[in-house]
Amino acid sequence: MFASLYKEAEERMQKTVSVFKEELQSIRAGRANPALLDKISVDYYGQITPLKQLGSITAPEPRLLVIQPWDPKLIPAIEKEILKSDLGLNPSNDGKVIRLVIPMLTEERRKELAKLVKKTSENAKVAVRNIRRDINDRIKKMEKDKEISEDERRLGEEEVQKITDKYIEEIDSITKKKEDELMEI
C-alpha cells in the first residue's frame, strides 16, 4: 500500500545525495581534479558550452590540471572564464594547452571550505527532510480520506523516518570524508 511512496522517497532522497556529491566535487581540496572545472562554461561561437565539451581536461600530476582545447583559438576565452570563476586559479598557456597549478591551501582557506561543505551538507539534509515531510503529508491525507487506519499511518511514517535516517547518515558520512580530505596537508 505504501510501497510506491517508499520507492518515491528513496528515489528523491538518492537524487538529493547525488546532487550533494556533485556540489562537493567542485569544492577544491588542494588536489587536481578535472571535476573542479565542471561549472565553467565558455562562449563558443555564440553558444554557452561546458568546458569539458571543448577539449580534454587531465590531471597529469597531483597539483596540475591541463586543458587541451580542440580549438586553440578558444584559449583566451577559457582563461577568461577560469579567472572569472571563484576557483582562485591562474591559468597559463603555451598556445596549445592551458596549465592550472593548484596551490597548497592555507589553513584559513581550508576552514572556509570546511564551512562551505557544512553549509552544503545542511542544505542537502533540509532537502531530504522536506521529502520526508511531503511523503508524510500524503500518508496523513490517506488516513484523513479513510483509506488507511491510524496504526497504518503510524507504521508508514516510521518507515519513511527509517529511509530518511539512512540518507541523512549517508550525507553525514560524505561530509566527514570531504572535511577530512580538506584538512589533510
Mean pLDDT: 88
Give the class from helix and strand content and strand pairing: alpha+beta
Radius of gyration equals: 22 Å
Number of helices, where a helix is a run of at least 4 consecutive DSSP H or I residues = 4
**Uncertain segments:** none
Any idea what the shape is?
elongated
The main β sheet shows up as: 4 strands, antiparallel
Concise summary:
The protein has 185 residues and is of the alpha+beta class. The protein has helices at 3-25, 75-84, 107-144, 150-183; strands at 41-44, 47-50, 55-61, 64-69, 91-93, 98-101.
Describe what you observe in this structure.
With 185 residues, the chain is an alpha+beta fold. Helices cover 57% and strands 15% of the residues.
Entry keywords:
four-stranded antiparallel sheet; 185 residues; alpha+beta; 4 helices; two-stranded antiparallel ribbon; elongated
List the helices and strands and how they pair.
Layout: H1 3-25, E1 41-44, E2 47-50, E3 55-61, E4 64-69, H2 75-84, E5 91-93, E6 98-101, H3 107-144, H4 150-183
Antiparallel strand pairs: 1-2, 3-4, 4-6, 5-6
Helix pairs in contact: 1-3, 1-4, 3-4
